[in-house]
Amino acid sequence: MRGTRRTMTVTTLLAVAGALPAAALDVPEPPESGNVADLADVLTDEEEQQVAERIDAGNESTENARVAVLTVPSLEGEELEDYSRRVATEWGVGESGKDNGVLVLQAAEEREVRIEVADGAREHVSDDEAEQVVDVMTGRFGDEDVAGGYTEGVDDLYALARDENPYAMSTGEKVAAWVGGALASLALGLLAFFGVRSARRAAANEAKEKELTQQLIAEARAQDPELPEPDEEELEAFHRYRKEHQGQPLPGGVPLTYAAWLPLYAAAPTQYGAVDPASTTTSTTSFGGGGGFTGGGASGSY
């Protein structure tokens, strides 16, 4: 009798365990910078940067949408729509009170895509329009053009948010746009090739300039041991001022040295190399505590 009870208990426990839902897939942390988290590594670093820049430009062009992108290797059995809504909500995609967030989520293993649209953004990007964007993206993904799918999809989302219709072009206009895009891609490729070489030269020159700045500081402190070692902000300010003035004397004809510059900087930081806070650009982040993700959007596969 005891054996029967034990068998029934084990059987019951197994049945209950089998009836329990699978553990929910963890929501990752939002990206530390930018608005793209490519956890599935479907984009190169350069492609990810291009998508992030498209989002930054879109955020500057309209307040009607704030787009963020997440790719995951697998959903691990979780439903795409449930997971995307949970990510969008926990990340706070969009601005608080405007609920203008839009999350683009790709599950690489399942080959699925979801565009989750918050209630505020839904006034400009309807479910049918989100489905059109999904169709564009999955078409590109199916052709192994993941980067193109994201850049076109992001551009279309922001066009819709600005109440423009990217799908209203005639066949001739679409052909012209495709040809123009192809030529632009070729030109960008050539510019990128030469740009990389130029960037490398610029980086090497900047390293030499920074070395000279540090050498001048070291010489000044060797002559006057009581001179304090600069903190990071002071170092960058002196480096910036020295580069901009290229050896020109300080006010009153005083030679530009670290010792002579330091008290002037302490009295008027922005005049002597510090960055003026008022001149910095505003953030284009898509994470502002938004919500209102009640099921708007569309899904597709490729």
TrEMBL record:
TPM domain ranges (all copies): 36-159
Keyword Nucleotidyltransferase: no
Annotated transmembrane regions: 175-196
Pfam families assigned: TPM_phosphatase (PF04536)
Region (Disordered): 278-302
Key word Nucleus present: no
Coiled coil: none
Feature: compositional bias, Gly residues: 287-302
N-terminal signal peptide: 1-24
The entry's keywords: Membrane, Signal, Transmembrane, Transmembrane helix
Protein name, UniProt field: TPM domain-containing protein
Species this protein is from: Kytococcus aerolatus
